[in-house]
Amino acid sequence: MRPFVFINAAMSLDGKISNEKREKVRISSKEDFEIVDRLRAESDAVMVGIGTVLSDNPKLTVKSEKLREERMKKGKQPNPIRVVVDSKARTPLSSRILNDEAKTIIAVSKIADRERVEKLREKAEVVVFGKDKVDLRALLEYLYSKGVRKLMVEGGSEINHSLIKEGLIDEIRVFYSGIIIGGAMAPTLVGGKSFDPPIRVELKSYEVLGNGVAIIWRIYRM
């Protein structure tokens, strides 16, 4: 068994989630930020790949005090569990994702440096799945066993690709912003190699939010 898994992302009109330098770029509207915060609050865990940790240094916590209080009234922690897919244990010890605002799980593979793993264990739970890269299916099954029923994935493009390739994504929510970033090498929603044949999705819903539109796509299952 695994959780319900959905990707949440914001991208420019030309399909970019960042610029060529992979710097953090404000893409979402104020309205979208508020909805994303609620989606995060409604999730049991939030997952990112190591690339997002290194480029954005996110906290992945719920910003709204009201939403945190709503979680606590339901007997939950103020913030969802934070999960990092980090095959080689490269998460910097100074990362904001390792602060004490929420529980953090770092998923590594067997090739991860043991000394690095032990240092990370001082600040987070470290689990090992996979030989040279994290076994995502095994990780999701582990999260399910820990009570995670709804998992929000917040990037980046490589982890998105891996999860879609493994058939582990149920829905994709994308906010298309009224900006153009450009750049042939700028990352898109899904990195990696092309899917052959392409992955089919079906439209579930859409909503105009400020100067952009949020669309939810459901992964098409044969």
UniProtKB/TrEMBL annotation:
It catalyses: 2,5-diamino-6-(1-D-ribitylamino)pyrimidin-4(3H)-one 5'-phosphate + NAD(+) = 2,5-diamino-6-(1-D-ribosylamino)pyrimidin-4(3H)-one 5'-phosphate + NADH + H(+); 2,5-diamino-6-(1-D-ribitylamino)pyrimidin-4(3H)-one 5'-phosphate + NADP(+) = 2,5-diamino-6-(1-D-ribosylamino)pyrimidin-4(3H)-one 5'-phosphate + NADPH + H(+). The keyword Oxidoreductase applies. Keywords: NADP, Oxidoreductase, Riboflavin biosynthesis. Transmembrane segments: none annotated. GO terms for biological process: riboflavin biosynthetic process. It holds the Pfam family RibD_C. The keyword Metal-binding does not apply. Pathway: Cofactor biosynthesis; riboflavin biosynthesis. GO terms for molecular function: 5-amino-6-(5-phosphoribosylamino)uracil reductase activity; NADP binding. Gene3D superfamilies: Dihydrofolate Reductase, subunit A. Its EC number is 1.1.1.302. SUPFAM superfamilies: Dihydrofolate reductase-like. Residues 3-214 form the Bacterial bifunctional deaminase-reductase C-terminal domain. InterPro entries: DHFR-like_dom_sf (IPR024072), Rib_reduct_arc (IPR006401), RibD_C (IPR011549), RibDG_C (IPR002734), Riboflavin_Biosynth_HTPR (IPR050765). NCBIfam families: rib_reduct_arch (TIGR01508), ribD_Cterm (TIGR00227). PANTHER family: 2,5-DIAMINO-6-RIBOSYLAMINO-4(3H)-PYRIMIDINONE 5'-PHOSPHATE REDUCTASE, DIHYDROFOLATE REDUCTASE FAMILY PROTEIN (AFU_ORTHOLOGUE AFUA_8G06820). Homodimer. Belongs to the HTP reductase family. This is 2,5-diamino-6-(ribosylamino)-4(3H)-pyrimidinone 5'-phosphate reductase.
